[in-house]
Amino acid sequence: MDTIFKIILEILSSLYWLFLSSIFFTFISFHFVRKILDNVKPSIILPLLFGVLNGTIAAVVETMVDRNLPHVVMFFVPLTIVLELFCISKNPFRVYIFILGAFLINYCGIYSLIIAATGLLWPELPNYLSAIDYRVFIFSLVTLISSCVVILLARFIPLRELRSITYKMEQNLMLVFYMYAASITFLLAIRLSTTTIFQLQGNREYLDIIYFEMLIKDFMLLLGGYIILLFRCREKGQELHAVNLKEDLQLEKGFRSSVQEKALCSYSYNATKDCLEQFHPAFNSYITNPKQAKYSQMINHYIDFCVHPDDQQVLRKEVVCLDVEQKFQLKVNSLQVRMRRDAIISFCSDAREIDAVRLCEGDWIWIEVRDTYITNAATGDLIVYVDLFNVEDVVQEKKQLEVAATTDKLTGLNNRSAAEARILDFLSLKSHDGAFFIVDLDNFKLVNDGFGHPEGDKVLRDVAYIIKSIFRDADVVARLGGDEFCVYAPGMTSLDAVKRCVEPLLSRCHFEYTYNGSTFAVTSSIGVAFASQANHHYDTLYHCADKALYTSKTKGKNTWSLYTNEDL
């Protein structure tokens, strides 16, 4: 054990270790201060150079000065760090004064504590070391422990608030005054105490008293500096929070004003207390005292009276059933529902809005209910702002776009992509079979060539009407393109059911034309396949029905064929 202790002493009391620890302390201090200062160059070279300067100063002072002058080193080490910051950043001079005082109070305080602690715990330590080695040992510990303290400060002190205090003269005067008063006290106390300690080397009883007083006094002085700094940071943090809150409220107020200008109706309620905050006059028509009524009960009443039956459940799920904790996690929630025209008019306060609602067709109007969730900073309650917007035009336009994207413009039937998507939905239910028809017109090109495309378009519209009239509403009827149509009839599994559809279709899709003395007929050829024959795969099903259609064509057209394995 003694051997290990002596090895540690030799390492810590060497000038080489003092030199390295000074570089490390300078490097750590640089990265801590860089989080506070503006315009600090991030290069690692300068911190290392100034660390070398710090290590050189410490080594030179301890080897060339015979007298015990620790305050010389304690002053020059923080001063070198501040000089470094001054060279590599462009900040107000008072900021450097603040940082120098902060480092002085820490460095001096930790030095004093180490002197007292080593004197109490290892009174025989000077016997192992010479006077110079003892001072080097103390300063090595000071730089290492100071580095650890700086790392902890960088982790736990709120640097954003400390930065704000540092850059405002009127706010950091008290801190600067305290730090320099404490630093001067430390330097004077160390100067007096070290002199006294060396004079009383032979009187252990008095030395223990001095060490103990140093330990208590300097610890409380250093701790007081941290506590004052933390309190100042806390006050500044509350101030910054209040400023940010005020700015947020201003932004929210502007946002609310712009939203309410476009809304049919706006009101707010307290979700935590389940009561109205700002209510609309329309509420008086249904509830005697809206301010005392529970919002959840009132909104349930409105949903029953105003909202379309198909939309009531989804609105209740998003508005009534959603608890406060779930709402706290939201920012904005919007939902589109249908509401009664007369109920919407009762909410409108502007003649322009009333006219816009009356111009909408039908008794039900699409309304967007938008909830904005805000936490009241004073009470912690969740406040919900509700705005109602008339989105009837938007919904109808969206429906028109959806119809245009899925409908054949000429015939009004499903287009190819829409039909494929719907058929795939049926085929995914492999337990359900169905029949797939491909209908192709015979001699249709002669109509376009002889009578023009308008007449050809009329034939296509007539065929579409005939197919729709023969098949069921649940069946998927589509125009695949040109003169080719398809039908998928889910649940149609018997040959008799197929015949009941194809026979009238062949009979009615018969159009006769006379052109240049010649008569020709436009008829239809049909290919049929069952989904089970294609293992419920759309591409295979289409291929099977197309094979059956080819068979109908080879038979002389104007007929139908059912796919069999012989068509392969």
Could you outline the blueprint of secondary structure elements for this entry?
Elements: H1 2-12, H2 15-34, H3 45-64, H4 70-88, H5 93-121, H6 125-128, H7 131-156, H8 159-166, H9 169-199, H10 204-262, E1 265-270, E2 275-278, H11 295-306, H12 309-319, H13 324-328, E3 332-340, H14 341-347, H15 351-359, E4 364-375, E5 382-390, H16 392-406, H17 416-427, E6 434-442, H18 444-451, H19 453-470, E7 476-481, E8 484-490, H20 495-508, E9 511-515, E10 518-530, H21 538-554, E11 560-562
Parallel strand pairs: 10-11
Antiparallel strand pairs: 1-2, 1-5, 3-4, 4-5, 6-8, 6-10, 7-8, 9-10
Helix pairs in contact: 2-3, 2-7, 3-4, 3-7, 4-5, 5-7, 5-9, 5-10, 8-10, 9-10, 11-12, 18-19
Briefly, what is this?
The chain has 568 residues and is of the alpha+beta class.
Entry keywords:
five-stranded antiparallel sheet, six-stranded mixed sheet, 568 residues
Task: Explain how this protein is built.
The chain is an alpha+beta fold and 568 residues long. It is built from 21 helices and eleven strands. Strands 6, 7, 8, 9, 10 and 11 form a six-stranded mixed sheet that branches. A five-stranded antiparallel sheet has the order 2-1-5-4-3, with helices on both faces. Helix 5 packs antiparallel against helix 10 and helix 8 crosses helix 10. It starts with a helix and ends in a 6-residue tail after the last strand. The mean pLDDT is 79.
Mean pLDDT: 79
Q: How does the overall form come out from the CA principal axes?
A: elongated
Gyration radius, rounded: 44 Å
Number of helices: 21
Low-confidence stretches: none
- Total beta strand runs: 11
Distance between the termini: 94 Å
Percent of sequence in beta strands: 5-15%
What portion of residues is helical? 55-70%
Protein structure class: alpha+beta
Taking the sheet with the most strands, its summary is: 6 strands, mixed
